[in-house]
From TrEMBL:
UniProt main location, coarse: cytoplasm
SUPFAM superfamilies recorded: TPR-like (SSF48452)
Family of this protein: Belongs to the Rap family.
Coiled coil: 297-324
Keyword field: Coiled coil, Cytoplasm, Membrane, Repeat, TPR repeat, Transmembrane, Transmembrane helix
UniProt name for this protein: Tetratricopeptide repeat-containing protein
Length: 373
């Protein structure tokens, strides 16, 4: 009877803590990242309930981080990254570690912490080199170059950024649509467009913004398509094509309704504001300029909150490293003291034994002298 009760209890608890992870649901959530991120959040949170498998947890937190990043909710995205970082301590799979380090690098890049971004990229580039050739290695080698390109673009080194982006595109095109690489291609093309835009090469910029929109459309990534049109409209604004720019911004608004990306919304409102100002349409200018200022403030507050949390996390990490160094130094100091003590004791024992031996020799010599006299 006792045995039956134990089995029944185990069965009940197994049912309670049964994994909610489902690969098909995961893929569905992944497809919503750039189309309907709120739906993606619901699906991922549902799968995370009672999930005990560490690999599944990491995979789900990585997707959550990506979703929050697409909404520019850096605070929650950082929470997911920190959770992944903590869980990664118990895994040895290099591919899983590379994915985590890539998420960490992207998080730091979006927050403007470029030295930490490069640190993560260097770490996972070395890991990539240890893997056998294949789609995973090819994709993440390309992603490594892409994120480096983002850093250089944000530091106004657009020539070097373009070099890294084109390297990334060469790698990523080799893997087809492995791990959503088509959406990543759209993101890279969008940033190529902006690199040319900042170099005032507007024809090249238009070409790559259009390519980004086409690729995003093929991947059903509506927010990425909206970003591409926003970039193209900015290009038109500079060229004085204000009405064309406004039409593209209207397309962006329609595509981004479900997204809630503060950076995208801020760019769209600024675009409307700039173009209506150029056209001297004061009513629309005032409306969109106010929306731009409000959205910019909301985005800055979100980034500030996540930056404070990141600083706290980095301080904790540095304190842990300092404690580890202290422990290591204490061990080294203990070894030095132990060796020094052993050497001193050895020397003292030798000294005492030599003194005793010399005393015995002196006593023998005294005895010999007494006999001879």
């Amino acid at each position: 009877m006792k045995r039956f009760i134990i089995i029944l209890i185990l069965f009940i608890f197994t049912g309670i803590y049964k994994s909610q992870y489902n690969e098909q649901v995961y893929k569905k959530a992944f497809s919503y990242v750039y189309e309907n991120p709120d739906n993606a959040l619901k699906l991922v949170h549902q799968m995370l309930k009672n999930e005990k498998n560490i690999d599944n947890q990491i995979k789900l937190y990585q997707l959550l981080s990506r979703v929050y990043m697409s909404k520019r909710d850096f605070d929650k995205s950082l929470d997911c990254v920190l959770k992944m970082k903590e869980l990664s301590k118990s895994i040895s799979n290099p591919e899983q570690k590379i994915k985590i380090l890539n998420s960490i690098a992207l998080q730091y890049q979006n927050m403007g912490l470029y030295s930490k971004t490069i640190e993560s990229l260097d770490e996972y580039y070395k890991l990539c080199q240890t893997l056998p050739d294949g789609k995973f290695k090819t994709l993440y080698t390309g992603m490594n170059s892409a994120v480096r390109g983002l850093v250089y673009k944000n530091q106004d080194n657009n020539e070097l950024a373009l070099e890294k982006f084109f390297i990334a595109l060469r790698y990523i095109k080799q893997v087809g649509n492995y791990e959503n690489s088509i959406a990543n291609t759209s993101v890279i093309l969008y940033n190529v467009g902006y690199s040319y835009f900042y170099l005032k090469k507007y024809n090249e910029a238009e070409k790559y913004f259009r390519q980004s929109a086409e690729v995003a459309q093929s991947a059903h990534a509506e927010s990425l398509e909206a970003f591409a049109y926003k970039g193209l409209s900015e290009n038109y604004t500079v060229l004085g094509k204000h009405q064309e720019a406004i039409e593209l911004l209207k397309k962006s608004v329609n595509l981004s309704k479900k997204v809630g990306d503060l950076v995208l919304s801020e760019g769209i409102y600024k675009g409307f504001s700039d173009n209506y100002l150029a056209l001297q349409d004061w009513n629309n200018y005032e409306v969109y300029n106010r929306l731009y200022i409000e959205t910019k403030f909301a985005r800055e507050q979100s980034e500030l909150a996540s930056l404070n949390k990141s600083i706290d996390a980095l301080n904790l990490e540095n304190n842990q490293k300092i404690e580890e160094q202290k422990s290591r130094l204490n061990i080294i100091l203990f070894i030095i003291i132990a060796i020094s003590s052993a050497v001193f004791i050895g020397f003292l024992i030798n000294f005492i034994s030599h003194k005793k031996r010399n005393q015995l020799l002196i006593e023998k010599l005294n005895q010999i002298n007494k006999i001879t006299t």
